[in-house]
Design a protein that fits this description.
Blueprint: H1 2-20, E1 27-31, H2 36-47, E2 52-56, H3 60-67, E3 77-81, E4 84-88, H4 92-101, E5 107-110, E6 129-133, E7 139-144
Parallel strand pairs: 1-2, 4-5
Antiparallel strand pairs: 1-3, 3-4, 5-6, 6-7
C-alpha cells in the first residue's frame, strides 16, 4: 500500500506527458502500381520495423513535384514520413538516423536506382550515397554505401 501512495501521484503527473507522446510516423509511399522494386523497398522498410502505407499513383514525378523534392534527385518512388521526404531506395538505417537526428532539412534521397540498394538486389552492387536534401534544394552526403 505504501508503494501505491507514492506511485499514484507520480503516475498522475506523468499521464499528461504520455498522452502527448507522438505515435511513430507512418511511411507514406507513392509508387507506380506495377513497380516491383518499390514493393521490395516497402518490404525492406517493414522488415526494419517501419509502418508503411502505399499509395499507387500513375505519375510519381508529379507527386515528387507536389511535395517539393527536386526532380534531379528523383527515383522510382517517393515517400513522406512526418515532416520529411524520402526519395528512392534509401536504407532503413538512414531513415532511422534522420528521425533520430532531426536535421532541418526537406529529407533524404538516393537518386536513381543504384544496384544493391534496398529493393534493388544485384550480383554487382554499386557504391552510392544517401543525400541530405536541404530546404533550398541543395544537398550534402548523409551516408555512403
Amino acid at each position: 500500500m505504501r508503494i501505491l501512495r507514492y506511485a499514484l501521484p507520480a503516475l498522475a503527473l506523468l499521464l499528461p506527458h504520455l498522452a502527448r507522446a507522438e505515435a511513430p510516423a507512418v511511411v507514406e509511399v507513392y509508387k507506380h502500381p506495377l513497380c516491383g522494386c518499390c514493393e521490395k523497398w516497402v518490404d525492406h522498410m517493414q522488415r526494419s520495423g517501419f509502418t508503411v502505407r502505399t499509395h499507387n499513383v500513375n505519375d510519381v514525378p508529379a507527386m515528387r513535384r507536389q511535395f517539393g523534392m527536386p526532380e534531379r534527385l528523383g527515383a522510382c518512388h517517393t515517400a513522406k514520413m512526418g515532416d520529411y521526404l524520402i526519395e528512392g531506395h534509401v536504407p532503413a538505417a538512414d531513415v532511422a538516423r534522420l528521425l533520430r537526428e532531426k536535421p532541418d532539412a526537406l529529407g533524404i534521397a538516393v537518386p536513381g536506382m543504384p544496384p544493391g540498394s534496398p529493393g534493388m538486389p544485384s550480383l554487382k552492387p554499386a557504391s552510392y550515397d544517401t543525400l541530405l536534401v536541404r530546404r533550398d534544394g541543395g544537398t550534402r552526403v548523409f551516408s555512403r554505401h
